[in-house]
């Protein structure tokens, strides 16, 4: 999957929605943000196709991948690795990047042509920059906080080849 989207792009980044197993629906605050987003980036573990259908119906662009909990229906519609140029920023999306230790160097070696790599799997928000400049973002999960204090997702703006306004959104514990 490769998408090119010029101009300023307001992004909603999410992962590990696990619907309907971890929650019945996406949180209202995330759906409100979806209405403002130009593009959605989802780093896998959707679990149901209805969530993909919903995001595709309410967003101008969805850049997503399948995760380890996604079955054949989602794997038929989504790649393991996605790439998109949004606002002049070269994005990659994968579900799992492996252990935290060594992640930056490992991902920089694997994706030397990217500016930003969005990943999921751990449900742990992550924002670091690898040597060489690759930014790694994990939005966490908006539905399953696991051992984290909050359910989370990210928003950002991509414009003129720069990623700005990266904000981690936290939901109160349920």
TrEMBL record:
InterPro entries tied to this protein: Calcineurin-like_PHP_lpxH (IPR024654), Metallo-depent_PP-like (IPR029052), Phosphodiesterase_MJ0936/Vps29 (IPR000979)
Its EC number(s): 3.1.4.-
Keyword RNA-binding: no
Domain Calcineurin-like phosphoesterase: 11-156
Molecular function, one GO term: metal ion binding
Cofactor(s) recorded in Swiss-Prot or TrEMBL: a divalent metal cation
Keywords assigned: Metal-binding
UniProt enzyme class: hydrolase
Stated family: Belongs to the metallophosphoesterase superfamily. YfcE family.
Protein's recorded name: Phosphoesterase
Origin species: Streptomyces humidus
């Amino acid at each position: 999957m490769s998408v090119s989207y010029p101009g300023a792009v307001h992004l909603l980044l999410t992962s590990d929605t696990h619907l309907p197993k971890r929650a019945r629906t996406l949180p209202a605050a995330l759906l409100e943000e979806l209405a403002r987003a130009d593009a959605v980036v989802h780093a896998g573990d959707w679990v149901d196709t209805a969530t993909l259908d919903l995001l595709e119906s309410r967003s101008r662009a969805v850049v997503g991948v399948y995760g380890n909990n996604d079955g054949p229906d989602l794997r038929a519609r989504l790649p393991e690795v996605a790439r998109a140029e949004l606002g002049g920023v070269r994005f990659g999306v994968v579900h799992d990047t492996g252990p935290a230790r060594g992640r930056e160097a490992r991902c920089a070696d694997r994706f030397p042509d990217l500016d930003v790599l969005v990943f999921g799997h751990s449900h742990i928000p992550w924002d670091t920059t690898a040597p060489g400049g690759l930014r790694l973002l994990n939005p966490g999960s908006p539905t399953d906080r696991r051992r984290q204090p909050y359910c989370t997702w990210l928003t950002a703006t991509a414009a003129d080849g720069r990623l700005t306004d990266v904000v981690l959104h936290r939901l109160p514990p349920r």
